[in-house]
Amino acid sequence: MGSTLRPGDTIGILGGGQLGRMIAQAASRMGLKCHIYCPDENSPAFEVSAEKTVAAYEDEQALTQFAKSVSVVTYEFENVPGETARILEQFVPVRPGPLALKVSQDRLEEKTFLSEEAATQVAPFIKVDNQAELEAALMELGGQGVLKTRRFGYDGKGQIMIRTPQDIEGAMDKLGNQPAILEGIVLFEKEVSIIVARGVDGTVKCYDPADNYHKNHILKTSSVPADIPEATAQEAIDMATRIVVALNYVGVMGVELFVVKDGDKTELKVNEIAPRVHNSGHWTEDACPVSQFEQHVRAVAGWPLGTPTRAHNVIMENLIGDDVNTWEATLLEPNARLTLYGKAETREGRKMGHINRLSPKS
Amino acid sequence: MGSTLRPGDTIGILGGGQLGRMIAQAASRMGLKCHIYCPDENSPAFEVSAEKTVAAYEDEQALTQFAKSVSVVTYEFENVPGETARILEQFVPVRPGPLALKVSQDRLEEKTFLSEEAATQVAPFIKVDNQAELEAALMELGGQGVLKTRRFGYDGKGQIMIRTPQDIEGAMDKLGNQPAILEGIVLFEKEVSIIVARGVDGTVKCYDPADNYHKNHILKTSSVPADIPEATAQEAIDMATRIVVALNYVGVMGVELFVVKDGDKTELKVNEIAPRVHNSGHWTEDACPVSQFEQHVRAVAGWPLGTPTRAHNVIMENLIGDDVNTWEATLLEPNARLTLYGKAETREGRKMGHINRLSPKS
C-alpha cells in the first residue's frame, strides 16, 4: 500500500463531476494520467482525462478492470459504497483510506470519532432511530435540536430543525424513518473551514482558514483570510491536524467548523468533515502556487506535499444555476478568475462554476 | 469570421504537442472543449482533450470533418501547410489568420514584412538561391553572415555561420540547395522575447519581456523581469504591438528580439516571430493570474483579453531530455512549480517539461 507514482502513471478517480475534473486537470499538469470512473456518461471530468469507464459503482467486473488499469484510486465524493472500496483495494491503494470513508458516511460515526478519537469539540448529539427516541433525545437537549439522517445528507437535505412541539410530530416520518441523530443547536457566529492535507509520509499541511457564507443551504462564498483571531486560526489548524492524524489519512480533507462566541472567548466546534477536495478550497487554485487539487494529487501519488503558501487575498464565489450567465462580465473584471465546469445543462441549485476575485495579500 | 464562442463550444487545435496540450488545459478551465488534430497517435494533448482526430494535415476529408465539429481552429506550430488552412477556412475561422502563417513560414517574407510593414529593425538580409548569389551577398555584407533556409528552420537547424572563406565553399550544398537568406551578423548582447496578444476587437496586451538564455541552440531559461532599461522594455512592447496590428492578428504571438548595445544606446532588432504561444512565455502560467495559454484561448474564442499582470519574479527552466529526471527534487522546492508534458519517451534534445521558480516581485 506504500506505492509511489511516477510521471506517466495513472490515477483512478471515482466520480466525474467538477471535483474529479479539477483533480484530473491538476494531475495532467504534472504529467500524470487520469482514468475517471462514473456511471453518468455526460461527466464533466471525462473531457479532460486520458481514460474513462462508464459503469455502476456496484459493477464488480468494471471495477476490477478499472483497478488493474491504474496505480492508485481516489474519489471526489464520500459516499463511495464500502463494497466498491473493498473490491478496488484488492488491486491498488485507495486513498484516502477506508476508515475515512466509514467515518464520513455516517454522522453518528463521524461525531463519535471527532469527539472521542480526534479530541475535537462537536455539538452535542444523540442517536435517534424512531419517534420515541427522538422525544427522549429532545428532553435531554432542552427541547430543541436539528434532526439529521445519519447518511447521504448534503446542502441542507435530510435535516429538520426542531424548535417547537409542532416540529416534533411526524418528524421521523418526514425523514423516511431513516437512522438519524439529534444534534443540539449551536448558536454559532459563522462557519469557517480549513483545507488540510496529509502525505503518505505523514506530513501535514494546512491552508489558511476561510470564512464561509451559505445561501439556501448551499455554499455561496469563501473569503480568505477569515476574519477570526490568530489563536482561533491556529486552533483550526490544530484540530484539522488531529483529525487527519487520527484517521491515518492520505489526501486533502475539508473540515467545516462553527465559530462560537462565549463572552470574550472564541471557540470552534467541528460541523463536518469531507474526505476529499472541498468547495470551500476552490480559492487555492488562483491564490496559491499549489492548489488543493495539486496537493491532493501529490498526496495520493505518494509525492511530497507542496507548500500551501497564499499569494493573494481572495473571495471565491460559487456560480449556482443561472449565476453562470455572468461569465462574460466576469471575463472583463481584471482581478477575477473564472472557472467553468463544462456542464451542458444549467439547473436551479446546480454548481456550474466559480469565480476567484483576487486582491493584495493582507 | 467574427464568431464568438460560448462555454461548451469547441476549439479545434492543429498539433498535439505540449503547446496544444497547455492550450487545451487552459480552455477546459473556462468550460470550453478542445478537439486536437494531429497525425501522431501518441500526442500529449490527446490526454487532456474531449475529442481527437489522428490524420495527416493533407487529409481533406478528415480536415473537413474536423472543421465541421469545431467553432474555431487554432494551431500550436507555424508550419501549418497553406492548403490545410485554406480547407479549414471554408468552414470556420482560423486564428491567427493566414497572413501570420504566410509571413512566419518564410524567413524572406518575415524579414521583409517586419522591416517594411511593421517598421521594426531587423538584421540586414539578402535573398540567396544558389552559391553564386551567396557569394554576391557576402560581398555586400562584408564577408560574413548567417546563411539560413527560408523555411522549416528551428532550434538552430537549417543554419550555417559563415565567417571565413572555408565556410563559404559548398555552403548551399550543405543546406540542400534550398531557397535561403543571408543575414548580417548582429553583435547582440543577449536575446529577450515578449509575448503579445491581440483580440478580435483589436485590443493589444503585452506581458513583461523576458531574458532568454539558450544552450545548444535550444531555449534553456527565461527570466522575468528582463534586465533591460525601462525604455527598452517599452520599445519591445511598441514593436510587438506594431507587428500584431500590421498582421491584423488574433491570438498570442512570441516575438524574439536581439538586444544590441551601441555605445550608451540600447537597440532592439527583431530576430523572429512565432504566431502561437511560445516557450519563452511558459513563465506566465505561474507568475501571472492570466497565462499566455488562457490569453490565447480568450483571443481565438473572441473573448476579451485578460490583464497580463505579473504577480511574481520568475525564472523558467526547460527540462530537456534527461533534465526531466530532476522531477522529484523539484517537488521538494517550496517555490518551484513543475509542469510535465506527459511524453512517454525521453530523448536527447526533447522538451519534456519545465519549472517555474518564483520569487517576490521586484
UniProtKB/TrEMBL annotation, chains A, B:
Instruction: Spell out the GO cellular component terms annotated for this protein, sorted alphabetically and separated by semicolons.
Output: cytosol
Source organism (scientific name): Pseudovibrio denitrificans
Please give one Gene Ontology molecular function term for this protein: 5-(carboxyamino)imidazole ribonucleotide synthase activity
The domain of life is Bacteria
Q: In which pathway does it act?
A: Purine metabolism; IMP biosynthesis via de novo pathway; 5-amino-1-(5-phospho-D-ribosyl)imidazole-4-carboxylate from 5-amino-1-(5-phospho-D-ribosyl)imidazole (N5-CAIR route): step 1/2
| EC nos | 6.3.4.18
How is the subunit organization of this protein annotated in UniProt?
Homodimer.
Q: Cite the Gene3D superfamilies for this sequence.
A: 3.40.50.20, ATP-grasp fold, A domain, ATP-grasp fold, B domain
Q: What are the alphabetically sorted keywords of the record? A: ATP-binding, Ligase, Nucleotide-binding, Purine biosynthesis
What is this protein's function? Catalyzes the ATP-dependent conversion of 5-aminoimidazole ribonucleotide (AIR) and HCO(3)(-) to N5-carboxyaminoimidazole ribonucleotide (N5-CAIR).
Quote the catalytic activity from the record.
5-amino-1-(5-phospho-beta-D-ribosyl)imidazole + hydrogencarbonate + ATP = 5-carboxyamino-1-(5-phospho-D-ribosyl)imidazole + ADP + phosphate + 2 H(+)
Binding locations of ATP: 107, 148, 153-159, 183-186, 191, 214, 271-272
Q: Which family does it belong to?
A: Belongs to the PurK/PurT family.
Its gene name is: purK
GO biological process annotation, one example: 'de novo' IMP biosynthetic process
Query: Keyword Nucleotide-binding, does the record have it?
Result: yes
Q: Which Pfam families does this UniProt record tie to the protein? A: ATP-grasp, PurK_C, RS_preATP-grasp-like
Domain ATP-grasp: residue ranges: 112-301
Taxonomy of origin reads: Bacteria, Pseudomonadati, Pseudomonadota, Alphaproteobacteria, Hyphomicrobiales
Kindly give the HAMAP family that the UniProt entry links to this protein.
PurK
Name listed for the protein in its UniProt record: N5-carboxyaminoimidazole ribonucleotide synthase
Keyword Nucleotide-binding assigned: yes
